[in-house]
Design brief:
The chain has 3 domains: about 150 residues, Ubiquitin-like (UB roll), CATH 3.10.20; about 400 residues, Creatine Kinase, Chain A, domain 2, CATH 3.30.590; about 130 residues, Four Helix Bundle (Hemerythrin (Met), subunit A). Helix 6 runs parallel beside helix 14 and helix 13 crosses helix 15. The protein is about 50% helix and about 10% strand. Strand 10 and strand 11 form a beta hairpin. With about 700 residues, the chain is α+β, with helices and mostly antiparallel strands. The radius of gyration is 28 Å and the shape is globular. It binds adenosine-5'-diphosphate and magnesium ion. The site of adenosine-5'-diphosphate has 17 residues, from strand 9, strand 11 and strand 14.
Length: about 700
């Protein structure tokens, strides 16, 4: 970018945003559309024609010839089918047209997307429906229209539909509670999200030479390099010019799409980086995170890199995650998770805080399921990411305040004042900055919660659907109690203290990586699922079905289908990884090691014939020869494990078998091959080593 002053003009230049709408729509149409976007009013069908026409004209000025209904099927990534604007004209020529009908609804068919039994292929029609709350944009000469994707019967086949439902649910629950505080002029309430994205950037040449990276997005083999991340010289280190050039171009591309890319830095592992945007409404944050991941991959290619979004591309160094910073805000700019200045505001803050505490404790299993993924299995519980136990960090100050409140004792900073909800101003407590406890999976960071368990490749939709729903449930419970309370203030106090006492076990301000925490958490009765396959089936536990049905987020059938898809996904991914390992072992690794043994044997005979020392040749040939056998045997065992994995009757059993037995067999094979790699000449190993990839 030659001239920094151009950034404000560049920002959002490819987005059909509010200012474009105001400029290009009639006042009446604009007002109605804005009502839908800002206040969630039903879309007036009469305005779709003029909006579509304005969109097309604007998009064509930006070079668009096509449009697409862009959606987020259950694959976790995005999908699109492009249609051109051309329509036949009477004179045999064509005209460019885009109707209101084409804007509002699409019928992509798309029968091959996972649906978990929700639609039989003979009635495979899936519909896309325009989501006016996320702005349309132009990319690659195409007008992108964010849409929801549903079945013929109206069941959600995507991630956006339930996300929008959950936002609506939280909006209503928060408003209901605020009304009890006499607040009616609060504008629109929305959950907000800022998703920090970690990723690896590796040289393309190395990537091309590794089938595991190409097929699975992660290395399945690789001996420990002499250097990893132990010097901590990469974290926040100076950014290499080649990487900097990538980041600059990425920023520009994201800015054009109205994505507020803000912070970029090097992460802990070599070749690992992070990008954080400025937060926005959840739905848009979710679309933006998808676009960010796609754009990272594309821009990487232009710079001779490959961007890896896998949770664990390399053993021995950290994997990648995503931090979901979450809060609730009103359109008047009030953050409902920000402690207030008046007693009433603080009482309200404490209720919202209590709702989150209760929600995270009671529905911890749902939060764990929302991040469950075979890729993420490699991180959670390993010493680099929060453990697979869900606990919450509040910081010492806030914990002390809640302790004092619930025990009726004076707060130490205010010896004389007994804390009382709704009667006294909460003592000012310093915001705990995130760095104070990076080991917590769910940390309160002053005015928002940071949920840190998400995998780097995940759609943030799942975690936010759960968060919005479980917090709504608690807010509703509180409202129900308060609506019939004789003494409002006393009831607020009772709710806050009772909730704290009942759910205190989920609060843990200590080191989440420590061994002792695992034991302590078990004593507290907190969930600890070891693998995704173990967690996922709980999605359809009766209390979870009841919760989602009550709030209109998912029907039982929708939950069942999601559960099925997630389990199938576990099986498919592990099967592909195992297959890739066997293929690499038989086609590249074994031939290379065996050739090396042969060469060593020849050298050995020659040396011996000449009376030269030959013990290195003999010992190494013996060692590598032994490893050849081990690798061949381990490949065979892995193949047998894969066959056995197909046997169990239920998906759940098959997924569990893959997550345990198949993985164990994969590890055996990897151990043998990695041992061989460590003893092979650099030029004789068929793949670039970890050091070649990570320290280019
Ligand atoms: P750190 O995590 O280093 O403390 P910040 O607090 O600045 O950094 O923010 C981290 C992420 O949280 C950013 O993406 C930021 O936009 C987001 N964030 C800040 N405030 C909110 C909020 N009220 N709601 C949701 N996300 C937020
Ligand atoms: Mg952070």
């Amino acid at each position: 970018m030659e001239n920094q002053k151009q950034i404000p003009e560049l920002f959002g230049s490819m987005v059909f945003n509010d200012s474009v709408m105001r400029e290009r729509l009639s006042e009446d149409v604009y007002t109605k559309l804005r009502g839908t976007i800002r206040r969630g009013k039903a879309l007036d069908p009469d305005i779709s024609g003029p909006v579509a026409d304005a969109m097309r004209k604007w998009a064509m000025e930006k070079g668009a010839t096509h449009f697409t209904h862009w959606f987020q099927p259950l694959t976790g990534i995005t999908a699109e089918k492009h249609d051109s604007f051309i329509e036949p004209a009477d004179d045999g020529q064509v005209i460019m047209k885009f109707s209101g009908k084409s804007l509002v609804r699409g019928e992509p068919d798309a029968s091959s997307f996972p649906h978990g039994g929700l639609r039989a292929t003979f009635e495979a029609r899936g519909y896309t429906a325009w989501d006016p709350t996320s702005p349309a944009f132009v990319r690659d000469h195409t007008l992108y229209i964010p849409t929801a994707f549903c079945s013929f019967g109206g069941e959600a086949l995507d991630k956006k539909t339930p996300l929008l439902r959950s936002m609506e649910c939280l909006r209503n629950a928060a408003r209901r509670l605020m009304t009890l505080f006499g607040k009616t002029d609060i504008g629109t309430i929305n959950p907000t999200v800022g998703a920090e994205q970690e990723y690896f950037l590796i040289p393309r040449e190395a990537y091309e030479k590794r089938p595991d990276l190409r097929l699975c997005g992660r290395t399945l083999y690789g001996a420990r390099p002499p250097k990893g991340q132990e010097l901590e010289d990469h974290y926040f280190g100076a950014i290499k010019p080649r990487v900097k050039a990538f980041m600059e171009e990425l920023d520009e591309e994201l800015w054009k799409l109205g994505i507020m890319a803000k912070t970029e830095h090097n992460e802990v592992a070599p070749c690992q980086h992070e990008l954080a945007p400025i937060f926005c409404t959840t739905n848009i944050a979710c679309d933006h995170n998808q676009l960010t991941m796609e754009m990272m991959k594309r821009v990487a290619e232009r710079h001779g890199f490959v961007c890896l979004l896998h949770e664990k591309p390399f053993a021995y160094v950290n994997g990648s995650g995503k931090h979901n910073n979450w809060s609730i805000s009103t359109s008047h700019g009030v953050n409902l998770l920000e402690p207030g200045d008046s007693p009433a505001d603080n009482a309200q803050f404490l209720l919202f805080l209590s709702a989150v505490i209760a929600a995270v404790d009671e529905y911890a299993d749902l939060l764990l399921i929302s991040v469950a993924d075979v890729g993420n299995d490699h991180r959670l519980g390993a010493n680099e990411a929060p453990p697979a136990i869900l606990s919450m960090f509040l910081g010492d100050e806030l914990t002390e305040i809640l302790d004092c409140l619930s025990e009726g004792r004076p707060y130490r900073a205010h010896d004389s004042v007994r804390l009382d909800v709704g009667a006294s101003v909460l003592p000012k407590f310093p915001k705990d900055n995130t760095d104070r406890n990076r080991t917590s999976p769910f940390a309160f960071t002053g005015n928002k919660f940071e949920f840190r368990m998400l995998g780097s490749s995940a759609s943030i939709a799942d975690a936010n659907i759960v968060l919005n729903t479980i917090v709504s449930e608690m807010l509703d419970r509180f409202s129900t109690r308060l609506e019939s309370a004789a003494d409002f203030t006393a009831t607020v106090r009772d709710i806050v203290t009772e909730t704290y006492r009942a759910h205190k076990r989920v609060i843990f301000n200590g080191n989440g990586y420590a061994e002792e925490w695992q034991e302590e958490a078990a004593r507290r009765g907190l969930h600890n699922y070891h693998t995704a396959a173990e967690a996922i089936p709980h999605l359809t536990d009766p209390e979870n079905v009841a919760l989602f049905e009550k709030h209109g987020i998912f029907t039982e059938a929708e939950l069942g289908s999601r559960c099925e898809i997630m389990l199938e996904n576990c099986i498919k991914i592990i099967t592909i990884e195992a297959g890739t390992m066997i293929d690499m072992a038989r086609k590249d690794i074994l031939p290379a090691v065996s050739r090396r043994v042969g060469a060593l044997c020849t050298d050995f005979s020659e040396h011996k014939a000449l009376g030269l020392p030959s013990s290195y040749e003999r010992k190494t040939a013996e060692h590598l020869g032994g490893l050849c056998e081990r690798i061949a045997d381990a490949a065979e065992s892995l193949e047998a494990a894969l066959t056995a994995a197909r046997r169990p009757d239920t998906l759940q059993e098959r997924a569990l078998f893959c997550g345990t037995e198949v993985r164990k067999a994969m590890q055996e094979l990897r151990n043998a091959a990695d041992e061989a790699e460590a003893d092979m000449p650099r030029t004789a190993w068929p793949y670039p080593s970890y050091a070649d990839i990570l320290f280019y």
